[in-house]
Amino acid sequence: MVDVEKRRLGRLEHDSSVLIYGAAALSDVSQDVADRSVKEALDAGINHFDVARDYGDAELRLGPWMAEIRERIFLATKTGERDRDTAWRQINESLDRLQTDRVDLLQLHAVGDLDELDAATGTEGALSAATRAQDEGLVGAIGITGHGHQAPATHLEALRRHPFATVLTPLNPVLWRDESYRADYQALVEEVRRQDAGLMTIKTVSRRNWPDDTGHTHATWYEPYADQDRITAAVSWVLSHPEVTGIPTAGDVGLLGMLVHAEQNRISPSEAEEQLTSDGEYSSPFLSMPF
């Protein structure tokens, strides 16, 4: 039994494992594969599970586990819809698929620019459905997520419009190198701390976009690092940021064990950054996105 580090998830006060189970990895696997992966996560001490209605069959694969583990995990899902009525239907579909009557966190998903934010937070937007679900006890808290180079600035504006309990935004060394991105991220951190929100980050082990002439060896939409040394470096670097409460594991069940090993065997941030920046192909996954 491994016991990964726990960090306080902002004002929600949940001691969440710094490795969050990224259930996107279950979007297109059998129940047997899903069961082995969920057990691997639980054995590692992971107590925070993150899924989305848009992740293929992932909610359906987690559902059979709820009778056994629901009371001992923090369960988060997401809606990628933007209008109130469609989001409301999707939230209820998620509960049915997950075989539970309540999730701890409902996140507005993939809000990465101001147009998306305007749509989600408008009068008839998905935020209205989320707040209704919270009022009715279907969700415990509301968060926001997003991809892309504009995500931190967008999430800062989101926190000005609504007191989201959590934010899930991108962070890794190659993004940090960009002065504009770093400034936006740091401004977001300042506001997150002021509001005592939980800050989670994504794309920890992303290496680059898939090259056009390369077959996809993993289920992730970006090419991930797949060697232990660089996964350890990436995890170590991100978790050296004290504001980060957790990182979802990569969307491929085959990488989970290496992420757990990395968390348990962290190296210094300087050594981690040196390992990653020595890769001449290391680049932002947001140069080209398939969605």
Mean pLDDT, to the nearest integer, reads 97
Question: Strand percentage, roughly?
Answer: 15-25%
Number of helical elements: 12
CATH topology: TIM Barrel
Residue ranges: pLDDT <50 for 5 or more in a row? none
Tell me the strand order in the biggest sheet.
Answer: 9-8-7-6-5-4-3-12
> How many whole angstroms does the radius of gyration measure?
18 Å
Question: Can you describe this structure?
Answer:
It is built from twelve helices and twelve strands. The chain has helices spanning 31-43, 58-62, 66-69, 84-98, 114-121, 126-135, 151-161, 173-176, 179-195, 228-239, 256-264, 269-277; strands at residues 6-8, 15-17, 19-22, 48-50, 74-79, 103-108, 139-145, 166-170, 198-202, 206-208, 223-224, 247-248. It has an eight-stranded parallel β-sheet with strand order 9-8-7-6-5-4-3-12. Strands 1-2 form a two-stranded antiparallel ribbon. Helix 4 packs across helix 6. The model has no long low-confidence stretch (mean pLDDT 97).
Question: Which key terms come to mind for this protein?
Answer:
alpha/beta, single chain, TIM Barrel, 291 residues, two-stranded antiparallel sheet, eight-stranded parallel β-sheet
Structure summary:
This protein has 291 residues and is of the alpha/beta class.
Write the layout of secondary structure elements.
Elements: E1 6-8, E2 15-17, E3 19-22, H1 31-43, E4 48-50, H2 58-62, H3 66-69, E5 74-79, H4 84-98, E6 103-108, H5 114-121, H6 126-135, E7 139-145, H7 151-161, E8 166-170, H8 173-176, H9 179-195, E9 198-202, E10 206-208, E11 223-224, H10 228-239, E12 247-248, H11 256-264, H12 269-277
Parallel strand pairs: 3-4, 3-12, 4-5, 5-6, 6-7, 7-8, 8-9
Antiparallel strand pairs: 1-2, 10-11
